[in-house]
Amino acid sequence: MAEIVRPTPRQLTVAALCLVVAVGTAFVAANVTRNETIFSLSPPVKGPVLQSVPSNDIPETRRVDLHRTFFTAWAALLLVTPALCLFPFHRASPNAAGYWLAFWTAGFLAFVVHLYWAIFVIFDGDWSRISTSPRVSAPVIDIVFAAWWGLDILLAWRVQHENRLVKLERTVVYLMAAALFVAGSAIEGEIWLSHAIGFVSGGAIALSLFVRVARELRDRRLNAATVST
From CA 66, how far away is CA 142, in angstroms rounded? Predict the structure, then answer.
């Protein structure tokens, strides 16, 4: 069983500062753009083109809250991307493991802020509105993912060793996080900046996986050459 490496005080400080800056910037940006029509007050139209455009499901007085919801989602994505890039290396490098857990935790905290604003501010905690809104693609999956993510962080901080079961659940939640964050931004984002952030994040995650696989293949070749000699 692999031992889980905890973040150093320096690594925690870096992640905490990034969390404060990212979430703080999201709220400042929402206030600065409160009079700008960056995001539509009407939900996205899905289905046939001839379908009538739905009316505004968010009043103009809630525009700043809508912006906070979007910007905190971007903050969560930016914070979790380093963790998703470091995950393939967290069992091989103590330094990578420390930063992975620090940013994995920071990204989760930012995501909780986003979920709070989306669920209890935009939708007033009304599950019937959430489950039927075109703005929300898979509300049940999002909630299950958030709970699973929180459980994984709890395990990472409380359980000293990573057994096979923990490795499996951690790999699954990693894949879910990569898929949901990248798809939610790159594919379902409302504006070009959201698409750009999603594609950059997805590219960084793919590059990290490529590097990890390349290193694994290199090490296997070196080991095979050593054995043969």
Answer: 18
pLDDT tens digits, one per residue of 192-218: 999 999 999 999 999 999 999 998 888
| 75/69 Cα distance (integer angstroms) | 10
Q: Which domain holds residue 66?
A: 2-33+60-228
Confidence class of residue 50 from pLDDT cuts 50, 70 and 90? very low
Round to whole Å and give the CA distance between 226 and 229.
Answer: 5
Residue type, 134: P
- Give Cα separations from 22 to 39, 48, 160, 204 (angstroms): 20, 38, 30, 19
- Whether 44 is covered by a domain: the verdict is no
Q: Is residue 39 part of a domain?
A: no
Cα(87)–Cα(208) distance, integer angstroms: 9
Give the number of other CB atoms < 10 A from CB of residue 134.
Answer: 13
Instruction: For the beta carbon of residue 10, count every other beta carbon within 10 angstroms.
Output: 11
Q: Which contacts qualify for 59-65: CB closer than 8 Å, 24 or more apart?
A: 62/121, 62/122, 63/34, 63/35, 64/30, 64/31, 64/34, 65/30, 65/117, 65/121, 65/122
The pTM of the full predicted model, rounded to 2 decimals, is: 0.89
Q: Interior CA angle at 210 toward 207 and 212, to 5°?
A: 110
* Total tally of structural domains belonging to the chain: 1
Contact 101, 6 (CB under 8 A): yes
Angle between helices 164-182 and 63-86 (to 10 degrees): 140
- The pLDDT tens digits for 164-176 are 899 999 999 999 9
Cβ neighbours of residue 166 under 8 Å, at least 6 residues apart? 155, 159
